[in-house]
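Quick one: structure tokens for this chain, please?
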Amino acid sequence: MLVQFSLLWLVYAISAVLSAPTVSLVSNSELDARGIFFVSYDGLVNVNSFQLSGILTHGNFQYAAWYTSSRYAILARRPVNSSGPWTTLQLPRQLSTNDSHNVITLGVSPSDGRIHVALDCHSTVVYYTVSEPGLATNGASWVASRFGSITTTLSGLGVGSQITYPQFVITPDNNLQFVYRSGVSGNGATQLAEYRNGAWSNVGSWASASGSYTSTNGVRSNARNLYIHGFTYRNGRLHVTGTWREQAGGVMCNNGGLTNHDTVYFYSDDRGRTWRNSAGSSIATSGSNPVNVNSAGIIVDSLNADHGLMNQESQDVDSNGQIHAIISYVPGRFTQCVTSYQRDRTSYARPFHVFRSSNGTFTKMEIPFALNAVGRSQIVMDAQDNVYVVLPFVRVVTASKSSGWTDWTMAYDGAAQGLNAFGEVTVDRAGVSNGVLSILYQVRSSGTNPSSVRVLDLRLNG
């Protein structure tokens, strides 16, 4: 069951409730005055929503990654809760092509303190390197020689030749997992590998391209991929939300739109081996019977492919183990047929907060601030389960748990503050537990002129 709230109700709630959390500026530090800049697929290679993680806190250090103007991959480190300078190193890998998919993502394996790096892939081989043991914890000198050679396997584990969207995630038992898509957009599988006892092994595909989808216009599609909003552990449970992208363009009302449709949710209690829908029914087994478009009971918000629904936004899980996701699309009050997703999303798209209650009910609430952009937003939650959403251009809107997440307020407006951020950002999710939200963004430029890559630190005041 999905409960929806109207925009007018939201406006009333905002005027009536004044308890929304606030943020305060801690620092704004420059990582690189000359970060590589080009616009591709409506985004930048240094700051993309699916980049988990481009900025990351582990233990006593915070790490960040980007490409500089010479195309080399740069890694940086600074002590946690420091507004001082970052120490940088340059990896022996240059960005191969001007494609914003080819992000750098970081992970740490807690069992041995190694830093893992995956980069420069879009339906190609992935490039990977890993540090010596203990570098994430012992504070040893920050130099490239502490990382191994760059390879196209995960320390010997082959993951294929069509890899996109690499992500590292730490499990509750302190192992490291690698989430990625194999195949291509509209015909791909979501895969999982795991680093345990110093070695990588394959878990297998957990969401496949199989099944059949028939659009509201009667057109049938027989292949797709699942775009995920996150892969998030909380209280031992793994949560996934996402949207399907169909291969058949005919499922749209106009070929200027996006074939994305529906928001889905499912979870795993065994580290991604088997999967259940929101009602608790078993629906899939990784490797042998993955989730597909026809899996029962996974749709939590039904929407056809006519509204420019965006893929790969973001999610978080509250202290009660309930999922919260941000989705965005062009509501029907503006048009029932998106004919140019770039134009129509910039003009009309709205973000929505979708969350699950303990009784299994899903609520969808429109956030009363326009995106004014093609791109995506980032959601995080503090220790009190208050919600902070970073909209494009580093505009931070918040809502309190005490209001039922209805008192949406603009807590920080990066556009008004003159940040001149390009649009999408990536955030340090692990660092939120320290009460600070670190936002990696890049200053808008033109053509291929390099621009500043920066980290904005905001204290979450609850």
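The radius of gyration is 21 Å.
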